[in-house]
Batch of 4 targets.
Target 1
Amino acid sequence: MGGLSEGYNLNRRDVVASLLENRSNLLVVTGLGSPSYDVMAAGDNDNNFYLWGAMGSAAMVGLGIAEAQPDKSVVVITGDGEMLMGFGSLATIALRKPHNLSIVVLNNGHYGETGMQLSHAGYGVKLADVADACGFPHVQTIQDQAGVKTLADSLCAGECLQFADIRIKPENLPRVLPPRDGVYVKNRFRHALGFAPN
Amino acid sequence: MTIQTDWQNEVYPALKSTGIKHLAYVPDAGHSVALRRAHDDDEIQPVVLTTEEEGIGYLAGAWLGGNRGALLMQSSGVGNCINTLALPASARFPLLMVITMRGDWAEFNQWQNPMGQATEDALKLMGVMTWRADRPEDVGKLIRGAGTMAFDGDCTCAVLLGQQLIGEKKWVD
């Protein structure tokens, strides 16, 4: 199976570290697999919610948080495979247009967790074009660290619904595992926003 | 086709009494009254979905942000939700679903039968608690009770509205 490598050069850990460097009160949702490890590697935080399953759900979890917390900025950091499984959610999100939500896809064009099989993105489906066609007011494809830096500055501002396809190198880095206890992570996240457990 | 009977007016007040602010849905004729009322209500955010499992993620996010919500769908949509039900099961998110049945009784379209006949068992296999309403007088109290067990007990709960309640779909006038 031939792979696409042109333009897929960024180091995923550097990308995520840059995105979250000045995160302030940013609320972060991660899609299962490597994006969860990348966000954990950038530093565990009470404002992180890590998905370990329910593939395709990350963007919708982000939408729910953004609607419930309109004064806080929310970013979903997920992979191309996870985003593909929830493609319909781009249409659902575009109808709502929450100003405080950013969807960031770490796109290596492959299913990295399962043996680096090519994904639809790797075969040429342009994720940002899909988000654009759905009606996202701001979409971009990023291939260099300068673009990542500009995106990072806009995440906390939370002024406009946006979608970013960031082209990263297809490689499996050492895993940095976030907590897998969903109840713990859920209650920790809610506690940080001032909500008590039942 | 319009279905309009008294039980339909029970659904929305019962849902609102559970404290929801979000109503995520894939439409069904049986939910048409509740959906219309949700769209007319400034206190409720109605969210139309492309597929039912989107609602599970959405409502988990809403709960993380401090809000309650409910998910409306037809029984065929339950099949779409199966793997995503791992999310409320693993993190014990509250989830309140109201499901209109097809393939349940007096079903004209046999293509609805496989999922309709498996709906309640499939939900139970995924750890969802279920209640069936086949009489109008049960609709409100079952939804309110399911809401209590969802939001006060962090449980995944579904109320099934049977076809004997909904009535036969008229295919030819």
Target 2
Amino acid sequence: MKRRGLTVVQRRNMAGRAFVYPWFVAAIIFVLIPIVMSLIYTFSNVVIQPTGGYVLTPAGFANWIKAFTLDAFFLDYFYQGLAEVATKLPLILLFSLFAATMLNQKFKGRGFVRSMFFLPVIITSGALVYVLDTNVTSDMFANNGEEAASVMLSNADIQVLILQITNNADLASGIVGIMDQAFVILWASGVQILIFLSGLQSISTSIYESARVDGATGWETFWKITVPMILPLVVVNVLYTIIDTFSNYNSELLRYVQSTIFGKADYAYGTTLSWVYFISMFAIIMVIVFILSRLTKHYSE
Amino acid sequence: MTLTRFTNKLKHPLFWKNFGWGLFRFALFTGIIFVLIYPILSVFSGSFKSYSDMINPTTIWIPKEPTLQNYIDAIQKVKYFDGLRNTAILSIACAVGQTLSCALVGYGFARYNFKEKGLLFGVMLFILIVTPQTISLPKVMIFKSMGMIDTLWPMILPSFFGLGLKSGIFIYIYRQIFSGMPREFEEAAYLDGCGDFRIFARIMLPNAIPAIVTVCLFSLVWNWNEVFEPTTYLQTPDMMTLSMRLINVNGFITQEAGVVKDLVYVIPIRYACIILVIAPMLVFYAIVQRKFVESVERSGIVG
């Protein structure tokens, strides 16, 4: 006799689909269709009609060519953004691994130190760093004493003043620059520390114990046990850091793209810029994940 | 007697090693924590400074004539409570939506093996990488046609379908914790005639509490601090969230006619604004910080 209806496996698969498909249908509407639409925009001119709709006229590669040849600001911001990721990424990773190893040790007041380290996770927003960023610099000068008078004298834009001073490669301004950079790095690594810390805690202590019995030093156990065990998390952290840096309101490139789309109402061109940005970010992530997965494979063999 | 014991302790080589290490650690942590909280401290002290303190170069940390006027000005000019209401509604609704919907999707990815699962998971990772700016314009069009512009719905609605802010990370966290659960749970319940959804709600979900706490907290915090999406969909000043007000704070303070754009006047109000915006999250963090660290450690982001 032939069975009627679905088999057990089929029923199970249908149940699985019931969990995932509402998300997928919404993803088609809210993400996948918009991606296709925005790709079409980049090859067109978009004119919003007063009635509410919009008209597309084909424009070929004009927007893309404009981004790389005519726009005086975009390439500058773009290289700046890439340089920022290139410098910040290794520093954030190193610092967060270091901080996580330190926080994983047992010492008095660990709870307090931890809660301080994760404070930026709670309050850091691009907005806050954006508003604070200039203030930190100006405050340092105000506290230096010698510069305070000139800062207080001037009602003109402090930012411009500081920028001028900073460009003059003064010793004091060099220190301020490092302080600012340290502040940005430290504030950006909260989540990464958390991820590394949870990874460190999942390594069972018996591995370390047996290594110690065999006579391994702390240095050796770090490189031969901790680092290989934590390498998959480096991939996660690289991904998170790149996504975070690129989508942070503090990034000048992003603000430029946003102001082009919504401020200047240059819809098609702004969308093209965001595509350049998206494609380069995608490429960077792919390259780094590829290299790191090779490394992980090497360790696991 | 006790003295000799003490000196013996001092002679032990491990004592000096541990002591030196502890001293080094203390110095290091003090330095790092100083850099971490320096901006907040200086903003906090600045927010109480009166005009005379601002122009007095000998006042550095503690204002000589502390005033609350900056806070009163900030609350009035930025319309703080409007912003607080919008941000609270937005982030709580999104946190509830993301915590529920991402759990469902993550469970589907973790416990079932239908044919196209790999493909859908790839789509999820892809969505995580897509920059929000790339799709912002088409999304504005879509939400405009649904009449949702200048409401909080464009942020809240997607988060109930597992598509809110950084939802991919949350789905991933849930998938990790659900894949680690023993198969016997499910089979026993299944034999007792429990349906798939009941297994999820009654057995799996209660065992995933660390992940739920983690997702809920991160979602709340990230939505609270989010700038880009609200700036895209909200237009009238009444609807602005706190973080939007923070970015436009200079505009808010100096928008009145007749006010001279005097930085000495603007800066303390700006500082008061910053403190007011982060204060709710600070209070929240003070309450949950122990839970926060614990559950992230146990939530199995690691797998």
Target 3
Amino acid sequence: MTDRGLGKKVRVKTIGCHGFCKQGPVITVEPEGLFYCQVDKKDINEIVQSHLIGGKPVERLFYVEPATGKRISKYKDIPFYKGQTKVVLCNCGEIDPSSIDEYIEKGGYDGLKKALLEMKPEQVIDQVLKSGLRGRGGAGFPTGLKWRFGRGSKSDKKYVVCNADEGNPGTFVDGAILVADPHAVLEGLIVAAYSIGADEGFVYIRHEYPQAIESIKRAIIDSRKKGFLGQDILGSGFSFDVSIKEGAGAFVCGEETSLMASIMGERGTPRPRPPFPTDSGLWGKPTCINNVKTLATIPIILRRGVEWFSSIGTEKSTGTAIFSLTGMVKNTGLVEVPMGTTLRHIIFNVGGGIKDDAKFKAVLTGGPSGGCLPADKLDLPVDYDSLTQAGTIMGSGGMIVMDETTCMVDMARFFLSFTQAESCGKCTPCRMGTLEMLRLLDKIRSGNGEESDIEKLQEIAITVKEGALCGLGQAAPNPVLSTIRYFRDEYEAHIRDKICPAEVCKALIKYTVVPEKCIGCGACLQICPSNAITGKKNEVHVISDELCIKCGACLEVCPPEARAIDKIPAHEGAGH
Amino acid sequence: MQGLSRADLAEQVIPSLQEIQERLGYIPREAITWLADKFHLSEQEIYGVASFYSNFRFTPPGKHHLRICLGTACHLQGGDRLLAATSERLGIKPGETTPDGLYSLERVACVGCCALAPNIVLDGEVFSRTTQQSLKQLLDSIDRQDKGAKKSEEGSQ
């Protein structure tokens, strides 16, 4: 830039997640709001030459609307963005996350100043309570109420914790916010500390998120320098400081009592509540634990007011919901919509519909603790209560879309294998129940299922749900129960007909070469890791059922003009 | 360590284990004894904590550390099939290291790049939108580099 005399005209800055992950890497040019997507290193020169020097934007890098084939230059006009309401994510992709000054320019730390200098802790808690904000970690407990309990506990020492142990596979909202707008989370945490009267705080963050760790570390240092952390913050007499605790790879540590055990250096196992952490938490002292998204919402509530915030969303679920939209949907990325928005809007308007225009089959919210909803639930409004009623949960923000290539039995098994592996083993319903359910699902998937297995599954699921000690176990059966509730026919196909309708379950399918279509190119032969394919060049190839490990590599590399590899039910045709 | 309470010491256990693993790539037996001594805890207590968390390993990792993401989005788009193919290619199961010490293979629950699934992590670098083909090419190129390095090493001797 400087070499070309643009040093004073153009400012280059790095931003956090802009949201539209599918189109990454992205470059935006402000103030016009021009949006370049899937930019490669070699495109940079052209952008500088043509756009920044010549004033002519590089049209070929604009977003192409799949439905019309039209190029859209500004991100505000792209349906993925148009269908969203950015509230908590308003800074994400806008500001340089490593610059505290940019955060302050956007009104950052104004909420903190207001709270510390103009309001009593009780007044802050009142405001948060009035805003209707509910915990974004999944359970939806009113944040203001939690703070009031924390405030009410008498103690010489109190703690606040930011729960950034986003362990739900398929969810990356908290990580993205911490990278893109770390000060918002920090500001929220300081306000929480002021409200309950804590002088020490922790950010408990996943080890798997090195960027987020760097980001929040830097934010803490910068915030200290500006006097938002430390002794006598802003001259208010209130002192508070934060340190970081990295997780060590245990999903159960997202549960608050396990998280506290982990901070104290113990095995991360949960304990029964009460006592609730706000009465007796870290080292026996009152501790208030909030999720990243919850804390990131606090500054904007204080800045823009309770009336404004509670006008967004529904009566019982105010504000916005943030999802990481992934799976078989065209537009994957970070999505923020008002609570009460329908699943259909999120998946089809914002998400752009199903990949390759395939048929929608199910959507999962809440990760391994959630449930799968079928097509006839697409008009369900997304809020805590509607989702719970339908058999899933809001969860912490994972929304995974599935099409006809997804087997629901396999999906239930996938989640069970996860929760079973992550079960800490402390309570029997979870330790044994998840294992038994996993065994039954494996039995069905391998084609050995019996009619009574579905009922057995349901029975164990309910026992685990009611008997488990913590949220992990209580929610682990959700994927099983919801798939049986909405996709029972798939279970029955596996059990009665020994068929996996989606052609996923390995024991029930086999890969075969269609002789008439094979062009003998050898692509499959070369990639097969188990040497299961034989055949001379230009001759029809053959897959050995004995050697095939069903990894599907052959199907992937078979040239599109041939499409000679087919998946068929395992019991069909004679084996080679 | 004097003057610190038992709770203060315990709090240091996980960060210490993390630092040891960061430097050595795994937690050797001796490290457990050393920590136990340092923190006035039993070896059982240290090992009990370390073995609870899946990030800690007790055997040295291979020269190349390959982790295949089996998060939900990756699973949907063939993460387990990538794992099956890789496991077959390397001749080891997840959690194991090849006898020549070149590769260790692991599954990871989610690396948070779900929108670009399926993902794999090789030596700390994330590779997104992985296909069987791209994974094969990646491992082929690593093998070639290693062979080349070995040859030039032999040549210089």
Target 4
Amino acid sequence: SKLLDDRGYGGRLIRGQNPAILFESGVRNRIIQSYYWKEQCFGLNEATLCDRAAQLKYIGGTTGVNGKPTPFLCLAFKLCQLVPEEGVVREMLNFEVDEDEDDENDNGEHGKREAEAEGNGGIENDETEEGAPPTALANIPLPLDPEATGRRGAFKYLRCLAAFYIRLAWEPVAIHQTLEPLLSDYRKIKRKTKEGYAMTYIDQFVDDLLTKERVCATSLWRMPPRSQLEDLDLLEQRVSPLQGEVDMLDGSDGEGVEEVG
Amino acid sequence: RQHLVATGQTGEVTRATVEEVHQRLLWLKRKMDEESKPEVLDLDARLEMHRE
Amino acid sequence: QEWDEEDDVAEIDEIDDRDGIDPEAEYAAWKLRELKRIKREREAIEAYEAERAEIERRRNLTEAERE
């Protein structure tokens, strides 16, 4: 494969290097030899890759005795081959159905977006709300969703895939700024492990990407610690959606964090 | 099969724009919604969806 | 689609990844995870500051000893 042949590689680079080296050589070889890679990933571009990603049912690295790569990992490798432009990656991460593209659907999935509707929204909103009873699921007010921006992305496994790619390919400040809002996306996801399947959550997966050294059979390149980026004024301190609550507890009594839960 | 997908001898594919990716996802979302609850749609609505 | 139909089709169905089945519980579980992250961050900052204070203390100590 051209991607793996360093001498002849003329494609896009990530941090000045061939993106293939973001994956370990053994894993790389198993991806390229896998049936999924050969049959499902050939010739994909950014748009057709979404067809595959929309069908993902779990995240994961390699599994079984042979270290078989998951479709998730194969698609991540494909993304590294494509090195999509930033806007495309953001679209994969945060895809939403805009109000005016969404006439026939007025159910729960879309209700969430009202919290962050753009200023021009008004008219379409009225239309959809008229038909729905006031008690509709979509209208249950916040506590369930403290930061609506963290719950974008209609295809949650595509969202995870884009997040994984961002961690591998982008720069530290952009990684933090782009991925941290997902720490309040608590939707469930399945993860394939060596033993079988396990339940995890988007926020948990993103936290792993930001704090662990190894995720999905891939060693994550070492980022400078967040505190260092803050010291250099490259990043603001992260404010959790729960910060207000935590501060209130702190106010009444020093060690608030342990007492909640 | 390969010559169907590849656009040139190099095996390079045509890159998609942000708008194309958005439209693709929109289409996938509609397809998914349609598959999950086809019973609520009457024939007219169905035709409407397919006209995209 | 055969690549996806693996030997463990039954196993994958043991995990239910549908959302909104029990919204309160799902939110509460997230809240717990988020609070743990806040706590972890705080402890990291405290450890970092303690480490800096210790370095500072030692440096002052040796300077004092030198005089």
